[in-house]
TrEMBL record:
It is an enzyme of class 7 (translocase). This is Spermidine/putrescine import ATP-binding protein PotA. Signal peptide: none annotated. SUPFAM superfamilies: MOP-like, P-loop containing nucleoside triphosphate hydrolases. It comes from Leucobacter allii. Belongs to the ABC transporter superfamily. Spermidine/putrescine importer (TC 3.A.1.11.1) family.
């Protein structure tokens, strides 16, 4: 704690009523967010949704048009970037090419006159398992190693909050998946608060405790990865996180537990607890891997939704699964992912097929049209 700005552990981050307007464009409509200390939080969304702007506001590189930013309960809104207990890791590593790996990591400590910069830099390099290349120049390292040096440099002064802006974006897919595991482990070891920005849903889901899905300058939904996947609340979230089959239906009664909906003559039931609205026109959905494909009409059962018959218009063998597209009259193309527990696909192109799933797996969305 040589420098007041740097904490021994992570701090929580609060964004209160944040809005950001650029001349002629509102990048952030309204943002309220609390990230608990020590958590790994991912901001996930498509290009242009306002993720980077959010990070830049927290880092102090932009000023909000409205709202307040609190780190560890302290309002940092008026503070210059270097006065905030925050470091950022970008997609471009921005290492100094003429300095050794060790000096790159120790640089910020020296500039701030923090004690034992060399000892601390070695410690940070051990954390990312690169202490054995401390004397090399950045150009003598692989892309993944350079990114780990950038990470060591960002955590060496123990910022209360680490901002990561697509830090793995420049890496190839395999290295990226490996670094995701490593980043997560490092975050758990150091216990700092991580705010990670990405457009890669798999990346957000693998690493974060909590994911906020952002769209057009707003958070659409926020929760644990499993929760967002199992219970998306909007069409955007249902489609952005994995794939969904969505059906426009009309609520037509129900029981205490489930809503019955009218879907072109057949019925799709959705648990009330899994539906956002309980009357009128709604959208219901089910994930492709929850569907069961049958070549004969399955027997009716109270806890099962059945639609069909449709026609199989595509069969793709993926290895672990076979993905079918079934054209169901009134529903359009429906995706089915069937695990290949036996050898070979069970159904063929052009076959007539019914689709069924446990009522439990249906979710209802707030949107009244697709
Ligand atoms: P990406 O993943 O492509 O970086 P993002 O979600 O990080 O996207 P932002 O960089 O936050 O998006 O940008 C959000 C929106 O604000 C974009 O439409 C962008 O064009 C706009 N924007 C960003 N900075 C400025 C600026 N200085 N002036 C005007 N518009 C801006």
């Amino acid at each position: 704690a040589e420098h007041a700005a740097f904490a021994e552990s992570g701090a929580d981050l609060e964004l209160v009523g944040i809005q950001k307007r650029f001349p002629g464009f509102t990048a952030i409509e309204e943002l309220d967010l609390t990230i608990p200390a020590g958590s790994f939080f991912a901001l996930l969304g498509p290009s242009g949704c306002g993720k980077t702007t959010t990070l830049r506001l927290v880092a102090g590189l932009e000023d909000p048009t409205a709202g307040r930013i609190l780190i560890g309960g302290t309002d940092v809104s008026g503070l210059k970037p270097h006065k905030r207990p925050v470091n950022t890791v970008f997609q471009s590593y921005a290492l100094f090419p003429h300095m050794s790996v060790l000096e790159n990591v120790a640089f910020g400590l020296r500039r701030r006159r923090i004690g034992d910069p060399v000892g601390k830099a070695h410690e940070a390099l051990r954390l990312v398992e690169l202490d054995h290349v401390a004397d090399r120049k950045p150009a003598q390292l692989s892309g993944g190693q350079q990114q780990r040096v950038a990470l060591a440099r960002a955590v060496v002064n123990r910022p209360a909050l680490l901002l990561l802006d697509e830090p793995l974006g420049a890496l190839d897919l395999k290295l990226r998946r490996q670094m995701q595991q490593e980043l997560k482990q490092i975050q758990q070891e150091v216990g700092l608060t991580f705010l990670h920005v990405t457009h890669d849903q798999e990346e957000a889901m693998t690493m974060a405790d909590t994911v906020a899905v952002m769209n057009k300058g707003r958070i659409e939904q926020m929760g644990a990865p499993e929760e967002l996947y199992e219970l998306p609340r909007t069409v955007f979230v249902a489609n952005f996180l994995g794939q969904s089959n969505l059906f426009a239906v009309e609520v037509a009664g129900g029981t205490e537990q489930v809503l019955h909906t009218d879907f072109g003559g057949s019925r799709i039931s959705v648990p009330r607890a899994r539906s956002v609205r309980d009357s009128g026109a709604i959208t219901v959905g089910v994930r492709p891997e929850k569907l069961h494909l049958s070549l004969a009409e399955p027997p009716a059962a109270a806890d099962t939704n059945v639609i069909g018959p449709g026609r199989i218009t595509d069969v793709s063998f993926i290895g672990v699964s076979t993905q079918y597209t079934v054209e169901v009259p009134g529903a359009g193309p429906v995706q089915v992912f069937a695990q290949n527990l036996q050898a070979g696909p069970q159904a063929a192109l052009g076959d007539e097929a019914w689709l069924s799933w446990h009522t439990e797996h249906t979710f209802g969305l707030a949107d009244d049209r697709l």
